[in-house]
Amino acid sequence: MIRFYKPTIRRSDMNAVLQTMVDEKIGPGERKKAFAVEFCEQVDKRYGVMLRSFYDALRLALDAAGLKSGDGVGMSLLAPRIYGIVCKAMGLSIMLGDIDPACGCLSLDEALRLQQEGAKAIMLDEPMGMIPYGIDYSSLEIPVIEDNPYGELRFEGEYMPALKSLDTKGLVIYLGTFSKILAPGYRLGWVCAEDEILAKYNFME
What we know:
- The chain has helices at 11-23, 30-43, 54-64, 81-89, 108-116, 195-204, and strands spanning 72-76, 93-97, 119-125, 144-147, 172-177, 189-192.
- A six-stranded mixed beta sheet has the order 2-1-3-4-5-6, with helices on both faces.
- It is globular and about 60 Å long.
- Helices cover 32% and strands 15% of the residues.
- The chain contains six helices and six strands, in the order H-H-H-E-H-E-H-E-E-E-E-H.
- Strand 1, helix 4 (81-89) and strand 2 (93-97) form a beta-alpha-beta unit.
- With 205 residues, the protein is α/β, with parallel strands linked by helices.
- Helix 3 packs across helix 6.
């Protein structure tokens, strides 16, 4: 005789699954809330927001930075294509700057030029997984979204600090992920920012 066990799925969780299939977001549900609470306790953080995709992480970061349709966003010529996709979907203007040939990041001079020309935020990807030595982005007066999925991945040498760790103005929104440093299928990331910025995520989700 083969025993058959009928799984019990709460209506709220089933609605969350169906909603996810429709709009690419993790919908509301008891298990989602419980996971967010437990994860925040493990990493000793105050706020937690569960997101399904990097697209949503970028979109919410731009929202949290206060950008509105028509605002300009500065990024390097070698920025990931998804930056442009997100900005276009939000009605934001893309402003391109040249890179520092020594590191592949947006150069400080170009970042300052973009700020002077009206950029409301800078999206900074770090292809080498660290902030280049000798580049001090703290002179910027606009939000910086620091996209650093490889920052925790090192095989030798000392750990390189994130730009967020040097932020004294509360302007840096740091995005990290486990999918690049732990397991590709582990689709979980995190945001590090000031409390007032993180609080916005709970309202915008």
